[in-house]
Amino acid sequence: MAEEHLDILAGGRWITGHSGDTFEDRNPADRDDLVAVFPAGDTVDVAECVEAARAAYPAWAATPAPRRADYVLRVGLALERDKEDLAALMAREMGKTLKESRADIQEGIDFAFYMAGEGRRMFGVTTKSELPNKFSMTLRHPIGIAGLITPWNFPIAIPAWKIFPALVSGCTVVFKPAEDTPLLALRLVRMFEEAGLPDGVLNFVTGFGEPAGSALVDHAGVRCVSFTGSLQVGRQVAERCGRAMKRCSLELGSKNILIVMPDADLDLAVEAGAWGAFATSGQRCTATSRIAVHGRVLGEYRKRLLERVATMKVGPGTDPGVELAAVINERQKARILEYIEIGRAEGATVLAGGHALETGEHAKGNFIAPTVFGGMTPGMRIAQEEIFGPVTGLIEIGSVEEAIEVANSVQYGLSAAIYTHDVSSAFKAIEGLEFGVVYVNAPTIGAEVQLPFGGMKCTGNGHREAGPTALDEFTEWKAVSVDFSGKLQKAQGVE
Ligand code: NAD
Prior knowledge:
Elements: E1 3-4, E2 8-10, E3 13-15, E4 22-27, E5 30-39, H1 43-62, H2 65-81, H3 83-93, H4 98-118, E6 126-128, E7 134-142, E8 145-149, H5 157-169, E9 172-176, H6 182-194, E10 202-204, H7 209-218, E11 222-228, H8 231-244, E12 247-251, E13 256-260, H9 266-278, E14 288-294, H10 295-310, H11 330-346, E15 349-352, E16 356-357, E17 367-368, E18 371-374, H12 381-384, E19 391-397, H13 400-407, E20 415-419, H14 423-432, E21 437-440, E22 475-483
Parallel strand pairs: 1-5, 8-9, 8-11, 9-10, 11-12, 13-14, 13-20, 14-19, 18-19, 20-21
Antiparallel strand pairs: 2-3, 4-5, 6-7, 7-22, 15-18, 16-17
Helix pairs in contact: 1-7, 2-4, 2-5, 2-6, 3-4, 4-5, 9-10
The structure holds nicotinamide-adenine-dinucleotide (NAD).
């Protein structure tokens, strides 16, 4: 049974969408299962949310940061309390396995606790003036109203990565979640309501990228846009924010790589490849979509990886025995299958999978068998373009230098990993890889909230979420000087 909602939140009032149009939220593992129906927000709804955020801004910006952070702490505790319930909903609404759903929520909890502490830090610097009796320091200043736009693959963690630091910074927020996972987003927003967050500080609009997302990007009242999603949409967001001189932070696609050197622990490297490529059915921005293996161990690695992949149970994420769950929607399923055909046409060999699963228990969902290509070469489209599905490929390399060159040959740069026990290879990779996140003897997935997260090149525009950099998206630096000399002092030696 579908849950019906009045679910645009503007200034503390839950309202139906202005147009009356709605959209369906369905279970990716069972298309007959209608999870909820939501209003398709439009420019009028977005404007109402921005107006509410504008009205709430002065009081919120003036609220002491430790008090602002208290609300985030309370939401962290509520996430902890409701973790199992939310995990079950996530496995149903987004489709990922229960284990991974719990991890998604745990990331939200970890980050809530981390950001709650940040409310009592927000450190600036003090420095020396070149003039006597003059004091200098830096302060963070909230940037204003923040428009937050999120994808569906981490339905709690990614909204948390944006909402928590925006609020601690003193921004008021309009949040538009992905159209595939609005109910989890709604639950998160309701937790802020339960925590007593003042009306208008967090506003919530559901709907599609066009018109709701783009209206949020374009609204003159929004001073900063934080966007996670595809490169294609990210480019448009960057262009529009650029014209309007808005702060814009982008976390976009990637083409991540696992490098396996001949001295690696092969069992660990196989587990890392299988987990990195097929967790969340490859729908992680850090998913291992290329595995570059040294020629000396390629045969053995391929054999063990295929044995491991053959053990993977594919099915609904709600089934605790399942390792590989459904992909998010039919459009994404078709896109992944198209890439598999492109790989075949380019001359790569399908060693495992390579097809949809559409009969029996898989008949009603968006299932694709875990797919491994052999004979992938660096220039192929399947080695260059983001597929965002359960597809990976083996590339043969002959040295760490060659592996780094192959790794860096793509337009993206989010996550790269190397398996080796050779300290020189490890450090060459650490130095040479043009990726924002680098692992040695750990898979490409599994970021922790206390580290900065983001990518180089077309994966983003230089911003980093989480970690000590989390507030940078939502604050301006203010340089403050206090002259207590009692006279007019001029810098740079002017008499
Ligand atoms: P998407 O770009 O289609 O959509 C992302 C969000 O943008 C959704 O909320 C959507 O409604 C909205 N949107 C769409 N068109 C818009 C427009 N014209 N203006 C404003 N908003 C618009 O991406 P997706 O399919 O939801 O997510 C998958 C992509 O996200 C992949 O490319 C993946 O790599 C990327 N991703 C990146 C990271 C990261 O941190 N680098 C993390 C997760 C996902």
